[in-house]
Amino acid sequence: MDKLPDSIKKLFVSKDNSDKTLPDNLFVECPGCQEIVYRPKLEQNLGVCPLCSYHFRISVDEWINFITDANSFLPLFEEIVSVDPLNFPGYREKLESLYKKGLNEAIRTGYARLDGIKILMGIMDSEFIMGSMGSVVGERVARLFEQGMNENLPVIIISRSGGARMQEGVVSLFQMAKTSAAAKKFSDSCNLFISILTDPTTGGVSASFSFLGDIIIAEPNALIGFAGQRVIEQTIKQKLPEGFQRAEFLEKKGFVDFVCDRRKLRETLVKILEIHRYRR
Amino acid sequence: MKKEKILKQIDRLKSIAIAEGIDLSSEINKLRAMLELESDDFQKEKQMKEVWEIVQNSRKIERPKPQDFIKNFIEDFIELKGDRRFGNDNAVIGGIGYFDKYPVTVVGIQKGHTLNENIEYNFGSPHPEGYRKALRLSFQAEKFTRPILFFVDTPGAYPGIDSEERGMAEAIAENLYYLSDLKTPIISVITGEGGSGGALALGVSDILIMMQNAILSVISPEGCASILFKDSSKAAEASVSLKLTSFDLLNLGIVDKVIDEGPGLEVNPEIGYKNLSEQILTSLQYFTSLSSRELVEHRNQKIRKIGYYKDTTGYLKKGISNTRNFIYDLFKL
Q1: What is the pLDDT of residues B207-248, one digit of tens each?
Q2: Quick one: A138 and A237 in the same domain?
Q3: Structural domain boundaries of chain B?
Q4: Is any Cβ of chain B less than 8 angstroms from the Cβ of A219?
Q5: Number of folded domains in chain A?
Q6: Which chain A residue shows the shortest CA-CA distance from B312?
């Protein structure tokens, strides 16, 4: 790729797409195998590299397109928006600029259908302050569980988050308790909660509702854990082993039910829903 | 210093204005505005010092630690160890005994007074088995309808390779999950440092009590400063923004009671002990009088309503179709 003229290089993205979802360019360099992939082909393949199966991070809209039945997603709780309870420096401005961009908080919730089966769905958005959980995320997740309880619908949440939202302080911290309590009530109503962990799921989100699924599915190579890798390295003063806190590591240690390729996810979910007698 | 200079100058301008009969009010107003700015900065500085002192006090090695509270409050204490899964975590002490006349289960996160103690207790940072021990003892308490007392003082759950291997996230999540529905009274006291999820795992309770000079935070001020301000030396500044003191949290509706420490627990613990034990006793009397259904209902409602957000339903009904623009407009207001 280095030999290409700059004018063509511009079409490609830089290697560093750590915090971005699927890049907009026509061609994309895969961080997994360093090969150049044609973007429409990547999209066809649900954001998975056709050569090495590297799972790109995809946006909420792409998740909806890839996973649910066409035009079946009906948003819920979008009327709840963030405020700045602590008067935290810079938080208000940050929210304002994100809302201006058209983003609607770090989780989107709503009804959807999978192969005709009605479900409630939550998809976290890492573009919104790293998918962090503040009051709004906590409230939407809690309401999602309550809605599921009232209507006897299964809940599926796709997690991707850096943890609790610092800018809302202890209020965010207690969203962990709130969402966990809601998950408990939902579980007591004998309904199914499938938690899907994607890259990355850490901190206050992994230590609350994300790890409380009846069935927990992880995406290949997703970073999943409680503490951040840098914090661990600083604490123990040594390098972390390869594959540490990755999906396959958690599967081996017995903390997720299985690792599932994104291309097989939809049919797997449908099978699970059918086994639990959710009907079309 | 600057403040006095400005005051002097205002006086001088005033006397000139009177003596010469000219209008200097705009100049004087400018100076007044400057004065206000000065005093605001001054206040900020003062507040920062106060909050930072509380943070440092909460971590003081002389300050009584959860094991001291247990020694002081619990008669016939019998320690119960282990999580029956992996091992026994020394950072967490648990057991049974009497508080006044009440048989109770008590769990505390231990911190040391000396370096050797701290090494033994891992500086008050539990591993997953510590939280699983706490949960095991909580289930036992539920079985025998014994109230539970939690004493919390921790910098946070231990961030290490072994912690992650044994599922720290899962351990904390399970605690939050089951404690929210446990059919026996839970009283939780933050005695010193309440570090994030590691403290919250023993903070789900019917009444959350905080010692006056304790702190409770989503992230350490040092961590917050290094992430947000890219400078960990700005921890004092971050500690103000995080609203981590007992009175801040009382105002935010997170903490239910703040206990007066008198001169400070690290100076003389007697007054703090006395006030806390009175509060625990009244709480025990009240919560043991409730039925288990009322109890769980009360706890769930208490947790459920924590959160600050704006519900814009009313506006949406008025026929504003474009949520996106609308939310933006709302913020401009």
Answers
A1: 999 999 999 999 999 988 888 888 878 898 899 999 999 999
A2: yes
A3: 1-36, 66-289
A4: no
A5: 2
A6: A79
